[in-house]
Predict the structure.
Amino acid sequence: MRFKYIVMRALTFVIFFSIVLVVYSSLNYFVYTRGLMVFSCTPAIKKWYTVIFWTLVSSFLIGMFWERTASSVVSEFIYRIGAFWLAFMFYFLMALLVIDLIRVANYFFHFLPVFSVAGKLNLGYAVIGIVSMVVIGGYINALTTRIREIPLTIHKAVSGNPELKILMASDIHLGALIGEKQELKLVRIINEQKPDLVLLCGDLVDGDIGPVLRKNLGKHIQEIRTPLGVYAIPGNHEYIGGIQNTLPYLESIHIKVLRDEVVILSDGIQLVGRDDRDSRRMGGPGNLHELKELTKNLDQSKPIIVMNHQPFNLQEAVDVGADLHLSGHTHHGQMWPFNFITQAIFELSWGLKQKGNTIFYVSSGFGSWGPPVRIGNSPEVVVFNVKFDSAN
């Protein structure tokens, strides 16, 4: 079983890396050749353009491979440069798309002047400047966490206080790019909010556990104290990094990870933590339980809260009588216009929705994946001020 798991992980990585390499190289070559049309006006400019461009391109591949094999401060620095380059590459592609649309329009209507060599060079510098401002603005936005407070009423009884403050955070992505400073920021927010219950809805770890162990990330999260506890579920990134390494570390810092498990809290709330759906193909148990199976013995007169990292098939939560269903995973696209893709894939890409008697919330997440950049959405921590009222 262990050998089969190792082979599966290795094969998954080889396939994934091969696809990434082909797509990444092709897109960068396209950007490079288009830029060469502008920055080949003199041999010196062409030389510097080529060297800088391919250095930035290779930093992502070198950094990603190095981080997975021998995480270090140097590999983290290179990977960070490469992660930023991903954002630059994408918005350079977007800029080229806009330029090409303008060129097509000009072909029919002839409204643009003929550009000189100096004019083309200035246009190139302008594109670099605009894209740089977009990426820098997205980086600043990614560091600006919003605290979203949502009042909810659940028409079921609990023992004790009928009002409960639940803090939800998802997609923290601790690792090479999200480090101790962000972890301390999350802990500070939690301490300021003074929740009764903290729920971490997947992707606490970015991927490979190496950077987390090297920097001892999570040591501050284990200091969180709440009346009802701190619970987490795995996300797909816990499996990308290897659940057999990630899970013991999370348990060592006293985070209770629920994998298709039900916990009855002291006030009678029934908390259902689902294992991530990607576990089937990434070395997990392979026998994920259906939600109806997990909840078949629950007391329907008491509140049921479901934590499920990926917000697929919302109807099953309605069918089993869940009161609150919490997810993350989507990042709401993270960088515009990817939000249109997540909105097409998921019934709910971000925010609040009610179906039947079930309230759904999908968080845009606390951290970021890949580029530490957010454009068109914001990182968040969500605070639910829940009132339990069995009168209705």
About this structure: Residues 73-109 form the longest helix (37 residues). The first strand starts at residue 146 and ends at 154. The domain at 147-388 is CATH 3.60.21.10 (Purple Acid Phosphatase; chain A, domain 2).
